[in-house]
Design goal:
The structure holds 2 protein chains of 2 kinds.
Chain A: H1 2-27, H2 29-38, E1 41-46, E2 53-54, E3 60-65, E4 67-72, H3 74-77, H4 81-92, H5 96-103, E5 111-118, H6 119-131, E6 137-141, E7 144-146, H7 154-157, E8 160-161, E9 170-171, H8 174-178, H9 180-184, E10 188-195, E11 198-199, E12 205-208, E13 216-217, H10 222-238, E14 243-250, E15 256-262, H11 281-284, H12 294-303, E16 312-315, E17 319-320, E18 325-326, E19 335-338, H13 339-345, H14 348-355, H15 362-369, H16 396-403, H17 412-423, E20 427-429, E21 438-439, E22 445-446, E23 453-455, H18 459-473, E24 491-500, E25 507-519, E26 526-533, H19 541-559
Parallel strand pairs in A: 2-13
Antiparallel strand pairs in A: 1-10, 2-3, 3-7, 4-5, 4-6, 8-9, 10-11, 10-12, 14-15, 14-26, 16-19, 17-18, 20-23, 21-22, 24-25, 25-26
Helix pairs in contact in A: 4-5, 4-6, 10-19, 12-18, 13-18
Chain B: H1 5-11, H2 14-23, H3 37-93, H4 96-105, E1 116-117, E2 124-125, H5 159-169
Antiparallel strand pairs in B: 1-2
The chains are: A alpha+beta, B mainly alpha.
């Protein structure tokens, strides 16, 4: 009997144990495992390093470094606030009063003193403060992003704003924004047990390595970009213009060596500049290209077999068309020009007469093939696709104006790529800003690795067009002798377009002046396009953008050691 | 055997019995050689002691190593931070704008058109032009348009606004 009671007692105790076991292991084992792990263990986030943005030679345009934020606990710092503020403001170049205010903030235990301070500097300052007997300062991870070349390519690269509170980057513009996921990487985590401030040697220790972000190599040539921005800025200021863009493309690969915008900003200190300067206007501004577009029209005409560059036209002083008369920018009687002469002198009337040879819809097809009316998709957000009226909507009046570059709109890179088609022997190659390939946040692959080529006009049509464009630079027959590069054959075309004002939506009497060209004309290496919006010095494409083109082209040819071809420039007759 | 012998014994003649008695095998008590216990106990104790002391020393040295590791890690972190800071400074020194300004201060200018000399044939292509000394400096392209804190007269109540602009920009 006694034995039986004993067994029952043991059974009850064992049942309680079993029940507890089921509770622990069966119902919620993870919570307890976590509690056990958390006891005496420490977990540290291993921050992934954000990839760098590099130029084509590997020079950094945007780079990352370890950084710290300095945080104060005002409940501890209030007493010594003035002395501590003095130390911090001197060492970290901060505003004394702002720091003082933060150190004395009431009802707070967390105040940012400085963010994104390079790690070495921050720890030095905090150690110094500690030695001097101040308490209440701590540091936390806060990676620094810096832009060593400041304004160079700032509109392409973009910048990161002050990080979010969870420490993640806040991209605000440019490649930083559109390739954020590609650049960011994934944070890792280390979890280990600690005792007395050091790791317990044989304790639990798990490490998930951080996966660093990818570096993004652009096609930008930093030095050329720097020079282009200086030349562009001088040009726009000299002409008292509103803004400007300059694009330098490698003719054969379509790589964009330079995409300069003015006005621009300093990426290492963007808050000092208006937000309107952050985007790349070369992609986001939409404007009418003017006479530069004539080369696309005539290249199409020659390709379609309608004309040659020697075809003769009798150009009247005024061309009366359906709705209104068409004039040239210069006064003349009836002149007898070849097609080359029409291009060299940039005659609207002559171009319209030549374009009459097109079958209906043919011009639209050519312009579409040249890439107008479609985004270049180089990898920057905010690009406009321009405005190319559809073939159905293209009335004969519109078609007349489109033939000489009005009534259609483009962005600067689009236009540069179109002119580059002529330089590249009639084959259009997609422009690219990224070397190789990289993945945009929306999953699209972009870059020179996925750029496609497509023949738009025949090689012969491209060559004939080039010969005509060479006459534009000729001091005797052309309108832009200022664009010449001594020693080299240069082909180009000016543009002086009426501008649609923002307020009235009509031509408001202001102009867009531009120059597009390539060199050496018979074996092109670079295509350069320079645009100035609203010059107030009365200059046109030849006198404002031409000299800027010449400087840029000269610099690029020298920089890449391009030899002059040594052949003679075309002597196509302009008149007959 | 022990069960059969009494039976046999009873059937044996008396005189033989004595002989049997004499010849009878008996179990000899085993000769116990008593090994001395002390050395063994000492050995075990020593091993035990060595083990414990060894473990203790090992643990201590591990702990020591762990402290050293932590220390070295800290040092590595601070050195890599220093290296990064120096790399950053170097990158900033290589800023094209700064280089141009320094070159300009030395009297250098952007070169004009170059010519190419073919060493084998001696042929010259291009038009060489001498560089012209003169103003080479480029004006800085960007100028902050927002007033910086120093330019604005500090009025009561405005101070924090202007100051916030600077501190949020970054501490650099």
């Amino acid at each position: 009997m006694r034995l039986r009671i004993g067994f029952i007692a043991i059974a009850i105790v064992v049942s309680v144990f079993a029940g507890r076991l089921v509770q622990l292991q069966g119902i919620d084992p993870k919570q307890y495992a976590q509690m056990a792990a958390a006891e005496g263990s420490q977990s540290v986030v291993l921050p992934a390093e954000r990839g760098e943005i590099l130029d084509r030679t590997g020079e950094p345009l945007a780079a990352s470094a370890d950084g710290l934020m300095i945080v104060a606990d005002p409940s501890l710092t209030t007493d010594d606030a003035p002395d501590l503020a003095d130390l911090l403001s001197k060492r970290l170049d901060l505003d004394y009063f702002a720091v003082l205010e933060r150190l004395r903030a009431r009802d707070s235990q967390f105040q940012y003193i400085a963010r994104q301070v390079p790690a070495a500097e921050a720890s030095k300052v905090v150690a110094e403060a500690r030695e001097a007997g101040f308490v209440g300062l701590t540091t936390q991870d806060d990676p620094v992003r810096f832009y060593p070349s400041r304004d160079v390519a700032a509109n392409v690269v973009g910048f990161l704003g002050t990080p979010r509170n969870d420490g993640s980057a806040r991209p605000l513009a440019g490649l930083e924004d559109s390739f954020d996921d590609y650049l960011a990487g994934t944070d890792g985590e280390a979890r280990y047990q600690v005792g007395a401030g050091a790791r317990i040697p044989l304790g639990d220790n798990t490490v998930v390595e951080a996966r660093d972000g990818n570096d993004l190599t652009t096609t930008i040539d930093r030095d050329l970009q720097w020079y282009a921005q200086r030349v562009l800025s001088q040009t726009v200021r000299g002409a008292r213009g509103d803004s400007g863009y300059a694009v330098v493309m490698d003719t054969q690969t379509g790589e964009v060596l330079t995409q300069a915008d003015y006005p621009t900003y300093d990426a290492s200190d963007p808050t000092d500049y208006p937000e309107s300067t952050y985007t790349s206007r070369a992609l986001s501004d939409v404007y009418e290209p003017g006479s530069v577009e004539k080369v696309l029209t005539v290249a199409g005409l020659i390709d379609a077999g309608k004309v040659t560059n020697k075809t003769r036209f009798e150009v009247p002083p005024v061309l009366n068309r359906q709705d209104r008369p068409i004039h040239d920018y210069f006064q003349h009687g009836t002149i007898r020009l070849t097609l080359a002469g029409i291009i060299a002198k940039s005659s609207n009337i002559g171009t319209v007469m030549a374009a009459d040879e097109f079958e209906p819809g043919q011009m639209h097809d050519y312009l579409t093939a040249f890439g107008l009316g479609r985004k270049t998709d180089v990898g920057l957000a905010g690009e406009t696709k321009g405005i190319l009226p559809s073939a159905d909507l293209m009335t004969s009046q519109t078609a007349d104006r489109i033939a000489f570059g009005q009534s259609l709109s483009v962005n600067a890179l689009q236009m540069a790529a179109a002119v580059n088609t002529i330089a590249n022997g009639g084959v259009r190659i997609d422009p690219s800003l990224i070397r190789g390939t990289a993945t945009l946040d929306d999953g699209t692959e972009v870059g020179s690795g996925v750029a496609t080529e497509r023949r738009v006009v025949s090689e012969d049509a491209a060559r004939q067009t080039m010969e005509m464009m060479e006459r534009v630079i000729d001091p005797e027959v052309g309108v832009a002798p200022g664009a010449a590069v001594p020693g080299y054959r240069v082909a180009g075309k000016t543009g002086t377009a009426q501008r649609v004002g923002a307020e009235c939506g009509c031509y408001d009497g202001t102009f867009t002046v531009s120059f597009a060209g390539f060199a050496p004309a018979d074996d092109p290496r670079f295509t350069i396009y320079v645009v100035v919006q609203n010059p107030r010095n009365g200059g046109g494409g030849g006198s404002v953008a031409g000299p800027a083109f010449s400087k840029l082209m000269g610099y690029a040819l020298r920089r890449y050691g391009v030899e002059p071809t040594g052949t003679n420039p075309s002597r196509l007759p302009a008149e007959w | 055997m022990s069960s059969t012998s009494p039976q046999r014994r009873t059937s044996l003649p008396r005189n033989a019995r004595a002989a049997v008695d004499r010849a009878r095998l008996s179990v000899v008590p085993r000769l116990r050689t008593r090994a001395p216990r002390v050395p063994f106990v000492t050995l075990v104790s020593l091993i035990l002691l060595a083990g414990v002391v060894g473990l203790l020393l090992f643990n201590t040295s591990m702990q020591q190593a762990s402290f050293t590791a932590s220390q070295l890690e800290d040092q590595a972190t601070s050195l890599s931070a220093r290296q990064e800071a120096l790399a950053m400074e170097l990158d900033q020194l290589r800023d094209p704008q700064r280089l141009a300004a320094q070159a300009c201060a030395l009297g250098m200018v952007v070169g004009p058109t170059a010519a190419f000399l073919d060493i084998e044939t001696g042929a010259l292509t291009g038009t060489p032009t001498p560089a012209v000394a003169g103003p080479c400096g480029f004006e800085p392209v960007v100028r902050p348009v927002r007033p910086v804190a120093e330019d604005v007269p500090v009025l009561p109540g405005q101070r924090s606004g202007a100051a916030r602009g600077r501190t949020q920009g970054s501490g650099r």
